[in-house]
User: Which sequence fits this backbone?
């Protein structure tokens, strides 16, 4: 019996690979799809062809194309009364989704077979709003997917938080992990909606150009592929309960689905996954993570006077580019603060420079490193110092204080003093010194000299064009023009510097006003509180966008916010807060408490600062 079975297998293989190319028939392309679907339902659009083809889909305005084409093929041979016939079939399947209700036509597709165009038939699909009918269609269309035991609950995202009870300004790492069943062969995932947070300063840690790491994990006896899909570093900006909304992922997963079994042993043989049996099915899923709630707490009360309000681990250093120079020359004084924490919230130290120095506002540079462990880096403040008078000068030591969570105490760092030795330069600016250059006239003691008789005199015509007077007159207009350009450039730089200074100090000034408003809450002085909130908002907009107070209005503020390409949501929030502030001042009986007004103002300023930094 074994040798008979072996002969049958050999005969089948010989017939399959020898006679498949023969007995060609006319090529036809047939399109098939469910005639009734529901809005939002996924369904398969399949094109069947007797030869290998390249399918060019028609324009489908009323449907979304979610995946495809998935290609499959089959062959069969029949011998009837000594006549042998062979047929082949190639299927190309696309996953579609209906957009809206109605009856729509899918036009003919064009299949390219051996360089020739073959048109398929047209299809008409009725899309209903009721999903009951579509569920039945889906069950009929994908019976094998149910047999695999996979449903949408097997796909999920978990959010993991490093600390749920941090201090204000303490770093918290949030990691989102995507769990996929082991049956998934491939996946494509994209972030549909980022998690949003109010009351946090946020950094994105995920490098989207790098393939996310994958691990495996077993939960309740089921094995999952785990992908580190997204991660954040967040710094609470105020105490109390703070919420981070869920992360929303749009993903298409590819699952191997086995065909229905039959009693034919040849079907079981060729349907074995080892030989590429079964088919791949695409499933599109929208997956949401869990929301996160943190309870932030205030820092301990025994903070030093120079406390920065930051939590982490930092180092401070200073450097002079030159310690010996002449008057009206320049040197660079750099303050570097590095470590792990919210680097972008480090403010410029208050330094008492000598009145004999001209010092510009510091140039701020950030070198921020993002890693799965969090945020670290360096912020430098570079001062340009121009001494105007000679002498020996000292730049005082700089103090920087922060809270060390590991040591549970405040740490104060102090740099060494820096010394400058200034010598008098060869040129002294007239606007910084006044020197009496008048000298007494000296009279020559002898006004009669002997006449020399042994000289030979020659008459020489005066040449004015070669004289120093000529070149002086010639170069004077050019010199005056260059001086004018230098003065104009200096004035323009001063104006731009003043705008930049206002921009940098806008957030700091607004925070001080908010602190004053918060103190007014404790005294129940609501009228003064709302006036201080209004000043904080209007002052912030005026300084941040360089709008003179005389020109400040809701229209000009909205125009400036739109020029910066900020989201319409943020602009509407700003206008809402201002309107509510004015309404509350003149209509005290309302449901909006001062605490809620304070939180709205604080969130607006924090959000605008973050969005502007992203834009840069």
Assistant:
């Amino acid at each position: 019996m074994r040798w008979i079975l072996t002969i049958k297998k050999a005969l089948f293989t010989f017939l399959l690979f020898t006679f498949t190319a023969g007995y060609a028939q006319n090529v036809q392309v047939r399109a098939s799809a469910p005639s009734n679907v529901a809005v939002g339902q996924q369904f398969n659009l399949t094109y069947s062809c007797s030869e290998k083809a390249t399918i060019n889909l028609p324009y489908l305005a009323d449907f979304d194309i979610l995946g495809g084409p998935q290609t499959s093929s089959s062959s069969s041979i029949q011998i009837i009364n000594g006549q042998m016939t062979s047929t082949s079939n190639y299927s190309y399947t696309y996953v579609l989704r209906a957009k809206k209700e109605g009856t729509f036509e899918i036009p003919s597709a064009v299949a390219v077979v051996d360089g020739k165009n073959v048109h398929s038939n047209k299809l008409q699909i009725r899309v209903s709003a009721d999903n009951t009918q579509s569920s039945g269609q889906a069950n009929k269309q994908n019976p094998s997917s149910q047999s695999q035991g996979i449903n949408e609950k097997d796909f999920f995202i978990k959010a993991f938080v490093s600390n749920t009870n941090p201090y204000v300004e303490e770093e918290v790492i949030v990691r989102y992990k995507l769990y996929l069943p082991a049956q998934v062969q491939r996946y494509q995932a994209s972030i549909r909606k980022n998690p949003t947070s109010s009351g946090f300063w946020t950094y994105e840690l995920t490098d989207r150009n790098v393939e996310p790491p994958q691990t495996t994990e077993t939960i309740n006896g089921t094995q999952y592929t785990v992908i580190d899909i997204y991660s954040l570093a967040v710094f609470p900006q105020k105490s109390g309960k703070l919420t981070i909304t869920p992360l929303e992922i749009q993903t298409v997963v590819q699952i191997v689905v086995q065909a229905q079994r039959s009693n034919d042993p040849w079907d079981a043989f060729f349907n074995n996954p080892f030989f590429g049996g079964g088919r791949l099915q695409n499933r599109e899923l929208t997956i949401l993570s869990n929301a996160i709630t943190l309870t932030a707490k205030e820092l301990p009360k025994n903070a030093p006077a120079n406390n920065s309000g930051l939590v982490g681990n930092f180092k401070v250093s200073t450097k002079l580019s030159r310690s010996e120079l002449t008057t009206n020359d320049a040197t660079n004084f750099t303050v570097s603060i590095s470590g792990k924490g919210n680097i972008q919230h480090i403010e410029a130290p208050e330094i008492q420079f000598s009145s004999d120095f001209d010092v510009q506002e510091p140039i701020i540079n950030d070198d921020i490193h993002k890693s799965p462990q969090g945020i670290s880096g360096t912020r430098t403040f570079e001062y340009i110092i121009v001494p105007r008078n000679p002498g020996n000068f000292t730049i005082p030591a700089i103090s920087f204080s922060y809270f060390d969570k590991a040591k549970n105490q405040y740490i104060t760092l102090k740099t060494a003093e820096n010394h400058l030795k200034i010598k008098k330069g060869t040129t002294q600016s007239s606007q910084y010194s006044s020197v009496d250059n008048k000298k007494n006239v000296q009279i020559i003691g002898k006004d009669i000299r002997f006449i020399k008789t042994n000289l030979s005199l020659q008459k020489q015509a005066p040449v004015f064009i070669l004289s120093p007077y000529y070149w002086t007159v010639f170069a004077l207009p050019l010199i005056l023009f260059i001086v004018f350009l230098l003065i104009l450039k200096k004035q323009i730089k001063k104006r731009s510097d003043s705008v930049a200074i206002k921009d940098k100090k806008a957030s700091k000034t607004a925070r001080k006003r908010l602190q004053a408003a918060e103190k007014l809450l404790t005294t129940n002085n609501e009228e003064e509180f709302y006036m201080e909130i209004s000043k904080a908002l209007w002052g912030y907009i005026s300084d941040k966008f360089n709008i003179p107070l005389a020109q400040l209005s809701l229209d000009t503020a909205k125009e400036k916010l739109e020029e910066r390409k900020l989201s319409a949501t943020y602009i509407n929030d700003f206008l809402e807060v201002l309107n509510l502030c004015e309404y509350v001042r003149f209509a005290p009986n309302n449901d909006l408490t001062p605490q809620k007004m304070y939180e709205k103002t604080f969130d607006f300023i924090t959000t605008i600062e973050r969005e502007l930094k992203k834009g840069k």
Q: What stands out?
A: The domain at 2-141 is CATH 2.60.40.10 (Immunoglobulin-like). The first strand starts at residue 29 and ends at 32. The radius of gyration is 40 Å. The chain has four domains: 2-141, 152-296, 307-423, 503-615.
